[in-house]
Known about the structure:
- This protein is α/β, with parallel strands linked by helices.
- It folds into two domains: 4-141 and 173-197, 3-Layer(aba) Sandwich (Rossmann fold); 144-168 and 200-260 and 276-288, Alpha-Beta Complex (UDP-galactose 4-epimerase, domain 1), CATH 3.90.25.
- It is 44% helix and 16% strand.
- The strands form three sheets. Strands 3-2-1-4-5-6-9 form a seven-stranded parallel beta sheet, sandwiched between helices.
- Helix 9 (227-236) packs antiparallel against helix 10.
- The N and C termini lie far apart (50 Å).
- The model has no long low-confidence stretch (mean pLDDT 93).
Amino acid sequence: MDDTILVTGATGNVGSQVVKQLSLFKGRVLAAVQSKNRADEIKNIAGAELVEMNFNNTETINAAFRGIQKLFLLTPFVPNMVEISENLVELAKKANVNHIVKQSAFGSDQAQGITMNSLHHKVERIIESSGIDYTFLRPMSFMQNYLGLANFIKAQGTFSFPLGDSKTSFVDTRDIAAVAVQALTKSSEHRNKAYNITGPKSISNYEIAEILSNIANKKITYVDVSVSDARKRMLNSGMQEWGVDSLIELFEFQRGGNASVVSPDVKRVIGRESISFIQFATDYAEFFKPS
Length: 291
């Protein structure tokens, strides 16, 4: 009998790709959503079965976990992420889930004084101590984050970060999902392993601006801004201070050259090179080209 897989965060950048790539899986795939108002979005992706699940409602979690064997765990990055995850893992154990594939973060094995890494580190330890088999996915920053800037880039021809000329091995979320699908459908091969998921090379935002300029056939410029200016802009945009502080920590981590590591894990797991930024930009060209 084929396994039943539950995908949390099914409407997000990574979760939606996991659901889409599981469409070829012969078993049952459940896509967890906070509201079935997102039903059409998920059905258009892959025709997965929908299940409502609220991370703060134990009753909905128990209902979603009923009868599943594999869990793709993607929790929101919030101050109580550890508590949310601890409850999810406890309920998963009670429901006899036998494998958890957790989306973590690059560097979470070391915790490195960054809030994001520290929280993911704590959740990884909770899963390890639960006795449930696991696979940890530790991705670098997403290429798809630039899609969130696309409208501004098209209108202004510029984008900014407090990253100087530092280089990051950005990863395409489609590659994260591809590794996740392997771990979910071939669990015995990936039991109790952790993978660092990066792109094929590290690049700077100056190089990214050049790539986007070529794709859009329009000059696009990267502007390096100070950390204090970046903080002000994020706070003025309405972001909560906790989230802003966490992002500033990540920017400083990247600016210090700590995000340039290139890992071979994607190729080891899925048998091909990870997607380059040029390929990403080409695939999403309509987002950056003038209307």
